[in-house]
Amino acid sequence: MRTFIPLLLLLVMAQQCYAAEVEYRTGGSRYEKTWQQFYVEADHEPEIDDPLISKGKAMVPAICEAVKHKDMKRRRYAIGALGYINERAALPTLEAILSDASEIDYFRGDALHSIYRIDSKRGLSYAAQYQSQPNILGQYAKAVIKREPWLLLPSKE
Length: 157
What we know:
By secondary structure, the protein is mostly helical. The chain has one domain. It has nine helices and no strands. It has helices at residues 4-19, 32-41, 50-55, 60-67, 75-85, 91-99, 105-118, 120-130, 136-145. α5 (75-85) packs parallel to α7 (105-118).
């Protein structure tokens, strides 16, 4: 019974974290179908960001607005989609995520990865700053510095 209580507590906390995620659907009715595909219909992990990527550069402002919210559902995939879309207009949003020490480190790592996809010189500069981090951000930074080929695999489109 004593081991059951901590497990139950963990499950309740995990449910609360999951319940706190919000489906931000920015950009108005123009993107409602795309957000529906992203949040609800896409369930195969490698393809979750495909609806956002397929909309291309026109979707970037809506994605940037959505990822500013730390409680966004599937936020990592949206941050990654910005890198695949490869639009420089996303850089200020990605840089804000990367430089925010209160962000979860894997969001910061995803932002670095996307920055590198969009502007490799800028990504290398940031990687030099974060390579000593003892977390996923540091791992991404080291991969960027090494110019690991997987970081720039061809676009998913």
